[in-house]
Amino acid sequence: MRIFTLIWFGQLVSLIGSGLTQFALGIWVYRNTGSVTQFALISLFAILPSILLSPLVGVIVDRWNRRTCMILSDGGAGLSTLAIALLLLVGQLQVWHIYLVVAVSSIFSAFQWPAYAAATSMLVPKQHLGRASGMVQFAGATSQLLSPMLAGVLVVTIQIQGVILIDCFTFIFSLVMLLLVRFPEPKTTAEHEVKKSWQLREFTYGWTYITARPGLLGLLIFFAAINFLIGGVSVLFTPLVLAFATANVLGTVLSIGGSGMLLGGLVMSVWGGPKNRILGVFGFTLSGALCIILVGLRPSVPVFFAAAFIYFFGVSMINGCDQAIWQSKVAPAVQGRVFAVRSMLALAPLPLAYVIAGPLTDQVFEPLLAPTGLLAGSIGKIIGVGRGYGIGLLFVVIGILTMIAVAFGYLYQPLRRLHHQLPDAIADEALP
């Protein structure tokens, strides 16, 4: 796993840098606009281009060397980040600039995840895929733990443009790590050979592969539903915390969540997850739903701390289990196309969630629990009345719907029995 570890370390450093930028720009936009909707639009532009390009990206990842795809991704995203730093430096940064640059960065980032995931399947033995997924979750958790704390200090000392320049240097570091290694090429069969001509079936092959396996299709639909619900939580969490605490507390909450994710990644790295990983997905999704409900019912700093730790611990376990399932059940030669379709469809509900969450909060839920709101005399007596409590009510609704989605997922037999009914697509030994 030496090559994988080098790549992983480069991506870890890059993630920390990206986390610095995301935290700093998020606070900048929300403080300068005061609008939940405009804050949520950053997330929309960060993900929509990647979703739309996924079918093309999947074919390219299976055609090109996956290392080349990752180099292209890191290089393009680094240049996009540099553009924001330069705009800040000359005092010309506006909100629409952030939307544009984030969208361009998203186009390059679309290559990153399918290539990284597919390369991991070739570099890591099947029995260690769960641990490799845990390492990836550990990297994301480290970013979430360190980035808010570092960003809070660095914004004061070197300002936002200095923080973003640091992010640019982390992209350079990850590029160096990629340039130091070589990736093996996947073995292909006649069935999976990527043709030289650009035919429509190459773009639809990932979808055909998934729909031929009901368990994988069920898993994809399950995550699409969960992502739609969690998408609202992700964009509303910052406004919710800022309604009851300061930006410093927000950074602490995110860091505590990062420590939970870090611990989850460590556990997943050592343990590898349960043998029947789909049960791990169900169980930790359920615990996450309970955390969301608790935050909505009792929005306060101690609850934010506890819920963030437990929730993000579960996120590591969920993502680690899910990733290991796909890497073991899908043939390596077609993982670029399959993973691209998986990413596109699982993440497709997120833009809708981002678009809905802001107006739903500003125009419906917050007015409902205003001091003179329609629900102030009923639900308001349980949750509270005033700024931020409407978001809390929406959290309760989202948590309940998430629990219902878990129940439906468990009742769908091909998904519940995915581990037993769908054979693994790769051997137990390390792949060349």
TrEMBL record:
Q: Which residues cross the membrane?
A: 39-61, 68-90, 96-117, 138-158, 164-181, 216-237, 249-271, 278-297, 303-326, 338-357, 389-412
Identify the keywords attached in UniProt to this record, alphabetized: Cell membrane, Membrane, Transmembrane, Transmembrane helix, Transport
InterPro entries linked: MFS, MFS_dom, MFS_trans_sf
Q: What is the recorded membrane topology of this protein?
A: Multi-pass membrane protein
Show the Pfam families listed in the entry: MFS_1
Keyword set includes Isomerase: no
Report the main location listed first in the record.
membrane
Task: State its location(s).
Answer: Cell membrane
Provide the Gene Ontology terms for cellular component: plasma membrane
GO-annotated molecular function: transmembrane transporter activity
The Major facilitator superfamily (MFS) profile domain sits at 3-417
What protein is this chain from? MFS family permease
Organism expressing this protein natively: Nostoc flagelliforme CCNUN1
The lineage, from the top, is:
Bacteria, Bacillati, Cyanobacteriota, Cyanophyceae, Nostocales
